[in-house]
Amino acid sequence: MASLSTQDAAGWEHFPHGADIGVRGFGPSKEAAFEQAALALSAALTDPETIAPRSPVKIACHAPDDELLLTEWLNALIYEMATRKMLFARFKVQIREHALAGEAGGEPIDRGRHAPAAEAKGATFTALKVAQEGGRWVAQCVIDV
Amino acid sequence: MDLNRFTRLSDYAWRIEPSGDMRVPAVIYGSEDLIRDMDEKVGEQAVNVATLPGIVSASYVMPDGHWGYGFPIGGVAAFDAEAGGVICAGGVGFDISCGVRTLVTGVAAAEIAGVRAKLADALYAHIPVGLGKTGEITLSDREMDEMLARGARWAVSQGYGSKADLERIEDHGQAENARPDCVSAHAKNRQRSEVGTLGSGNHYLEVQEVEEIYDAASAAAFGLVKGEAVVSIHCGSRGLGHQIGTEYLRDMAVAAAAYGIKLPDRELACAPIRSSLGERYLGAMRAAINCALANRQIIAQLARGVFAGIVPDARLDLLFDVSHNTCKAETHRVDGQTRELFVHRKGATRAFGPGHPSLPEGFKPIGQPVLIGGSMGTASYVLAGTKESEAAAFSSACHGAGRAMSRHQALRQWRGRQLVDELAARGVEIRSPSLRGVAEEAPGAYKDVSAVVDASDHAGLARKVARLRPMVCIKG
Question: What ipTM describes this predicted complex?
Answer without folding.
Answer: 0.86
